[in-house]
Amino acid sequence: MRAVVRQQFGGPGGMGRTLNGSYAEYTRVPVSNVVSVKSELAWEDLAAIPESYATAWTCLHPNLGLEAGQTLVIRGATSALGQAALNLATGAGARVIATTRNPERVAKLKAMGAEGVEIEGADLSQRIREQIPDGCDAVLELVGNSTLLDSLAMVRRGGRVCLAGFLGGLVPLASFNPLTQMPSGVQFSFFGSFMFGAPQFPLSDVPMQAIVDGVAAGRYKAKPARVFRLEEIQEAHRVIESNQANGKLVVRV
After folding, report:
1. Pairwise CA distance, residues 158 & 161, whole Å
2. pLDDT in tens, 66-79
3. Which of 168, 191, 214 represents a domain boundary (last residue)?
């Protein structure tokens, strides 16, 4: 039996931000952020699962209410979180249109099950509307503020948008007037991994054992993009900051 410790890297209050210990051999985490699973996966493989998959599951189900047969657009799908969401969404029977800034990553997204892949651009909502005139059912927005208004424009009435990443940076919207810029009937929510452990988002709600089993069985692709030794930590940060990760990076202490 192996125990997976859910370490929060995603925002304020997270491990490595306001809590020390992200590179420690031993550390203390809130009991509400610990879950036990049974698995024979290597530690490096286990380490790449919790944050991405727990966040993706919560975005897709409680927040977006995704159902089989619905069409989901994932903006920023080649990120670790985007890939996890693509795995879970296709596994749940949804049709996924994935986006990427890099044409060289189109084949990978299709191999992972994306029904369509679009290159990110200012006219994405127009392209989605040409394919689906009434609009898609849901958008998982991982690019952030720079594309949020465009994501709202591509969703059908009664559809949902969940903002869960800021791959495009943290520059705030110049202006946001829901009365004039948000389509009537569209539901908008935000989710960040730092919310786990709070009473509103207990980690126990996430079917982590089923997710780990799915990874072990090969249904979900969750192997880390690269594994570094602690001595290589500067290179790991260089890869992240240069946008070359293309998945989850793991540092073995």
Report:
1. 10
2. 999 999 999 999 99
3. 191
